[in-house]
Design brief:
heterodimer; A: 132 residues; alpha+beta; Glutaredoxin; B: 588 residues; Immunoglobulin-like; 4 domains; 5-stranded antiparallel β-sheet; 5-stranded mixed β-sheet; 17 strands; elongated
């Protein structure tokens, strides 16, 4: 019963959220607190093949998009255009940070990964938050 | 306990999901090396799986106003990666300084950006180089260029003369190259064309008029080279190759056949009467003027069709024009070079005017000889596009039929003069050679100069079979830049020889039939990975391939070192005999 329900919710979410709803970091912190979600920060830049892959392939995947919409608040930084908070260090793009509503780092991902690995990573991040 | 299992699982997942990426300074290592006082090489060594975007790579002069100019030459080629052009092997650039500034230190900024194939793109990066340049060296580079410290190929040397020399020196050098070129087989086919034109001009031919006509011919030829050179430079396209198009070649072969037929007296080729009268309105002498125009047209056309041997001076000039866009100086140099090439033609033309027999009497024999030569030229042109066996067969037909006309099969008449005997003797030789050619064509020989090669090989094989037989060289064939890049990538760790080849290229065939058959050459070539870039089709991808490596036409042989970097000074352009070729191979 529970799985059926979860499946239905996922389906609804899929229909509702085809695209990611990127917000700025401050907005993300307050909404994360209110909605009990996890902040997902992406550091990106223009003309970056690997970022393009994440945005156009991985995040276009319906299940990934739905899962992000349900449990994460996505934040987008362009390293060439935006001021990046000091704590988000990177050696290149894309770099992902998963943070609690208080801004505490849960996980960091360097570079692009495929749909399967990104899904696993999101599940693990969620699991480790529940554990705390 | 449960918690520990979970933790290990999580770490495991994260480790597998997160490949360890190279830090930027490991991924990209910019290096600069000094080649000589005014030339430096900049290279970015790349870590594993790292690539650099072509359009994000810039080399800048940080002091553009210090009187010293920077010339950057790209020595490596970007490949298509998804939708971008990127370097997957270390990009290499040659930076040359020129000018007369007093600056001692030159600052160069290298900007670049790249990614790892594992899925991470690095920030745009830059590296500043400060180079101490002795300003006094800059002016005297002409003497230093091509010195022993810096091995260059012939075409490099010619390009270097351009870069550094004064205009007079450049033009003088090119006149010299032209004279030198006149001694190569490239010009030979023009001799019968010119002579026959002059002879066919007929009556009142004098040395003066012969000289005049030859001059017109040579000037027209020079004009053709100049235009072709400038266009090639400006548009970077391979005009010579376009002129080797089967359709064009066939058309010109037909023109020569027509000329030959007219030589045999079947019909007269002349400017239509109406044109002649129109021209005569502007000048009193209709016939003469018409002749001049005809000669000029022939000169222009024969330069385009018969002349384009890929000779180093031409390639050098084209490389220069292509790189600098200085079409004026490049064009002038090509013009002067063609004049140099024309000097022997002028001498022959003048002589022809004076010594060639007048029409009537002995004239018929001479014109018929020229007719045969014209047919020979037609076959020679067709031989680039028709199967080897067929062209050998055509040669055989030409020789045998001519021999029969020469009366080989008829007995010499009573009281024959020695000249006739000599003539018949020559005819017999032609007949026998024609027969040999037919034999060769039937046994699959490809070289008209060596019709019995298979016969000889068979004899040699039976002797050498015990000692491992004759090794044959084997090329990997590529037709596009992408294929070449991937073969180069596969060949990493080994030195690579890339032979630009086309079916229509005579010098390529010579290389194939003579040089690449020499056992010493074959042995030495065996130490390289052999790739043949087949540009016969001369389509978009072939053009892109040639352009990527600054190859102006086949044959050109490029060498790459173990890490896949083009050895710039080692490129071989044009035909080389086995001994010369071996020497160049050994120098690599």
């Amino acid at each position: 019963m529970k799985t059926v329900l979860a499946g239905m919710m996922l389906l609804v979410a899929t229909l509702l959220y085809a695209e990611l709803d990127w917000v700025d970091y401050d907005t993300a912190r307050s909404s994360a607190e209110k909605e009990g979600k996890i902040i997902m920060v992406m550091l990106s830049q223009e003309g970056c093949d690997a970022c393009w892959y994440m945005e156009e392939v991985v995040f276009e995947d319906d299940n990934v998009a739905a899962e992000i919409a349900m449990d994460f608040i996505p934040v987008y930084f362009d390293i060439k255009a935006d001021d990046i908070p000091e704590k988000f260090t990177y050696i290149g793009t894309p770099t992902f940070y998963f943070l609690t509503a208080e801004g505490k780092k849960i996980e960091r991902l360097n570079g692009a990964v495929n749909v399967k690995d990104f899904t696993t990573l999101m599940r693990d991040v969620k699991a480790s938050v529940k554990k705390r | 306990m449960k918690y520990i299992i979970f933790l290990t699982a999580l770490t495991g997942v994260l480790l597998s999901a997160m490949p360890s990426f190279l830090m930027p300074d490991e991924a990209f290592k910019p290096v600069i090396t000094k080649k000589n006082d005014t030339t430096y090489e900049i290279r970015i060594d790349l870590g594993n799986d790292i690539y650099v975007y072509e359009d994000r790579l810039n080399i800048k002069d940080l002091d553009p106003d210090d009187g010293i100019d920077l010339h950057v030459k790209k020595l490596s080629t970007a490949v298509k990666h998804d939708s971008d052009m990127v370097y997957v092997t270390p990009p290499l650039f040659e930076v040359t300084f020129s000018g007369s500034g007093s600056a001692k230190a030159i600052k160069i900024l290298l900007e670049y950006q790249g990614c790892s194939e594992q899925g991470l793109c690095y920030n745009p990066m830059e590296k500043e180089f400060t180079i101490d340049v002795d300003a006094t060296m800059l002016q005297s580079t002409t003497a230093a260029a091509g010195g022993a410290s810096d091995p260059r190929s012939e075409s490099d040397e010619i390009a270097a003369i351009f870069k550094d020399g004064s205009i007079v020196a450049v033009l003088a050098a090119f006149f010299g190259f032209g004279l030198f070129l006149a001694l190569t087989p490239c010009v030979f086919p023009m001799i019968p064309i010119l002579s026959s034109i002059i002879v066919s001009q007929g009556e009142n031919m004098s040395a003066k008029r012969g000289f005049f006509l030859s001059l017109i011919y040579v000037l027209a030829m020079a004009m053709a080279y100049t235009i072709a050179g400038i266009l090639a430079g400006l548009f970077g396209s391979n005009i010579q190759a376009a002129l080797q198009d089967p359709v064009v070649l066939t058309l010109f072969a037909l023109v020569f056949v027509a000329l030959a037929v007219s030589m045999f007296g079947f019909f007269e080729i002349g400017i239509p009467q109406s044109w002649q009268t129109r021209i005569s309105k502007y000048s009193g002498k209709a016939g003469e003027q018409g002749g001049v125009v005809g000669v000029a047209i022939m000169g222009f056309l024969s330069a385009l069709i018969v002349g384009p041997c890929i000779a180093p001076p031409l390639a050098g000039a084209l490389i220069y024009i292509g790189q600098t866009g200085d079409a004026l100086l490049g064009g002038a140099a090509l013009f002067v070079m063609s004049l140099g090439m024309g000097v022997p033609l002028l001498i022959i033309g003048t002589g022809a005017g004076k010594f060639m027999p007048r029409p009537g009497g002995g004239m018929t024999t001479v014109t018929k000889v020229f007719g045969v030569m014209m047919l020979g030229i037609a076959i020679w042109m067709l031989s680039r596009i028709i199967p080897e066996a067929l062209s050998m067969f055509l040669w055989a037909v030409l020789l045998i039929v001519s021999a029969v006309y020469m009366g080989v099969l008829e007995p010499l008449k009573e009281g024959t003069r020695s000249f006739n005997a000599l003539f018949k003797g020559l005819g017999v030789v032609m007949l026998l050679y024609g027969v040999a050619l037919i034999y060769g064509a039937l046994t699959g020989a490809g070289n008209p100069l060596n019709p019995l090669e298979h016969h000889a090989n068979r004899a040699a094989l039976s002797v050498s079979q015990q000692n491992s037989g004759s090794a044959d060289i084997h090329f990997i064939t590529v037709r596009s830049l992408q294929e070449l890049e991937s073969e180069l990538a596969k060949a990493k760790g080994k030195r690579v020889l890339v032979d630009f080849y086309a079916d229509w290229c005579t010098s390529c065939k010579e290389l194939e039939h003579v040089t690449f058959k020499d056992p010493d050459v074959v042995e030495k070539m065996g130490t390289f990975v052999l790739i043949q870039a087949d540009v016969t089709d001369n389509g978009e991808q072939e053009k892109a391939l040639m352009k990527a490596y600054n190859v102006f036409g086949p044959p050109a042989i490029l060498f790459f070192d173990e890490s896949g970097i083009l050895l710039q000074g080692k490129t071989i352009v044009g035909y080389k005999d086995p001994k010369e070729f071996l020497g160049l191979l050994n120098a690599i």
